[in-house]
Amino acid sequence: MGAICRSLDMARKIIAACLSTGDTAVDATVGNGRDTVFLARLVGGEGKVWAFDIQQQALAAAARLLEQEKLTPRVTLVHSGHECLARYAGDNLGAVMFNLGYLPGGDHSIVTRPSTTLIALETALQKLRPGGVATLIIYRGHEGGKEEEEALLSYCSGLDQTRFTVLHYCMLNQVNDPPSLLAIERLK
């Protein structure tokens, strides 16, 4: 796609602009592990990534990628839902990435849900440092995807504008429900 970025590309550009070497980041939905690797590269050897998924298959795929890239020491893989983020990750997070929906190549009946995603997002926003960013790639084309998007848009629309800036990035004239992006920056 020419000058217009896909949602995931835009999310990565936003994260790369705010995350620095030595920061702590969270991959709230490991999936195939590519975002985990992306974050691990950005935080460098002194940084830390917490990576969450409820499916062992996803964590195993991420572990293989991290090993290939020699990034394993920077990442802690957590076999748990993203709603448990508060139990693991500390404060002053530089970035939190969500890639919602289902595991590509996995069981499509196992999907993210608004109830747990909203808990995870609220926790993430509390733990972001000033200038930190949370991104959410929202896939709407699966059962429950549109409801999850509606819940997230409603929640984010109500965020205090003196504390957060929210961007909603989506393709308006595309078929097949392309994913949209929410990016939330905690203000200084």
Structure notes:
The protein is built from 6 helices and 7 strands; from the N terminus they run αβαβαβαβαβαββ. It has 188 residues and is of the alpha/beta class. It has a single domain, classed as Rossmann fold (3-Layer(aba) Sandwich). Strands 3-2-1-4-5-7-6 form a 7-stranded mixed sheet, with helices on both faces. The radius of gyration is 15 Å and the shape is globular.
What's this model, at a glance?
This protein is of the alpha/beta class and 188 residues long. It contains six helices and seven strands, in the order H-E-H-E-H-E-H-E-H-E-H-E-E.
Estimated structural class: alpha/beta
Major sheet attributes: 7 strands, mixed
Query: What number is the mean pLDDT?
Result: 95
* Helical coverage, percent range: 25-40%
Write the layout of secondary structure elements.
Elements: H1 7-18, E1 24-27, H2 34-43, E2 48-53, H3 56-68, E3 75-79, H4 85-88, E4 93-99, H5 114-127, E5 128-138, H6 145-157, E6 164-169, E7 180-186
Parallel strand pairs: 1-2, 1-4, 2-3, 4-5
Antiparallel strand pairs: 5-7, 6-7
